[in-house]
Design goal:
The complex is a heterodimer of chains A (about 150) and B (about 130).
Chain A (H helix, E strand, L loop, with lengths): L24 H12 L3 E6 L2 E6 L3 E7 L2 E6 L3 E4 L3 H8 L4 E5 L2 E4 L3 E6 L5 E5 L4 E4 L4 H15 L1
Antiparallel strand pairs in A: 1-2, 3-4, 3-7, 4-5, 6-7, 8-9, 9-10
Chain B lengths: L1 H26 L3 H25 L5 H22 L9 H41 L1
Helix pairs in contact in B: 1-2, 2-3, 3-4
The chains are: A alpha+beta (about 150), B mainly alpha (about 130).
Chain lengths: ~150, ~130
């Protein structure tokens, strides 16, 4: 099997094209694995329901037992509780950074300490999210395990 | 290193209790053993109260440290008073014993957190470079 990677400037969305001579078990398994990388979660905004690609989620937060999902440009309300979202998203690149918040590791720009010993995660869109010290080891391990997976 | 120190202190605690209880059984000299168990009970109360402060999910770590310190001092002074560990004029010694431990602990914690944050930021940078490839 040949793997061809091509960067195209201006490409709006990542596309995967699988070329095969015959649809055999190997090809089916490959397609299934690719499909599994795209997960979706339902969320509502102004009464309308949306299907949100998990890779578009920047972070999810629980406030007053309500879960909110933040993407680059919108905020959605989810019917799922945070612990349920954690279960769904744990296979994706998400890490819990506090009791009430889950962040997409790909949306994380950096973490910094503030003068009163608090921690803050800065996302790629400039948003800031509180990080709990208790979860710092969790974050470290998540990055270490993902780095190990990709090597 | 941290695991080593924790294990060492844990065995020190167990050895201290054993070293006071066995001679007490043999020689009927219970004062040291009683003191050891009083200390253990006091620490149990402190740890349980600190578990409650964990539940508060305080956003400011410094405040949590302060509350933990107040709990330790209050429980230490109270039990010390009940069990006559000190004369009232020497109560300041409890402060002298407990406060430095917390201050050192706080600064060690800051150093560790800064180190962890540096490692995480390096991992974030490496990951973003890999994704760009």
């Amino acid at each position: 099997m040949k793997l061809i990677k091509k960067q195209i400037d201006g490409q709006a969305e990542t596309e995967v094209e699988v070329r095969y001579a015959k649809m055999d078990t190997e090809v089916i398994k490959l397609i299934e694995r690719i499909e599994q990388t795209e997960n979706f979660i339902c969320g509502t905004d102004n009464g309308r329901q949306y299907k949100i690609r998990t890779s578009d989620i920047y972070y999810a937060e629980s406030v007053d037992k309500k879960t909110f999902i933040y993407t680059k440009e919108a905020v959605f309300r989810s019917n799922l509780r945070l612990y349920q979202l954690i279960e769904i998203l744990k296979a994706d690149d998400f890490v819990q950074v506090s009791k009430f918040c889950l962040i997409n590791m790909n949306a994380l720009e950096s973490i910094r300490t503030l003068f009163n010993s608090r921690l803050e995660a800065i996302l790629i869109n400039g948003e800031k999210v509180n990080v709990s010290r208790t979860y710092l080891t969790n974050v470290n391990m998540a990055f270490a395990s993902k780095a190990g997976d990709s090597e | 290193m941290k695991k080593f120190i924790k294990k060492l202190l844990m065995f020190f605690g167990l050895a201290s209790i054993s070293a006071t209880v066995i001679p007490a059984i043999v020689n009927s000299y219970w004062e040291a053993a009683i003191f050891a168990f009083q200390l253990l009970f006091m620490l149990l109360v402190v740890f349980l109260l600190q578990l409650l402060t964990e539940k508060l999910s305080l956003k400011i770590p410094l405040l949590k440290y302060f509350i933990d310190l107040v709990i330790t001092l209050s429980v230490g002074l109270s039990f010390g008073w009940i069990w006559k560990w000190y004369e009232p004029s020497y109560a300041w010694m409890m402060f002298a014993m407990i406060i430095p431990v917390y201050v050192i602990g706080y600064f060690l914690d800051i150093v560790k957190v800064k180190k962890d944050v540096k490692v995480i930021n390096q991992q974030i940078k490496r990951r973003r470079e890999k994704l760009r490839e």
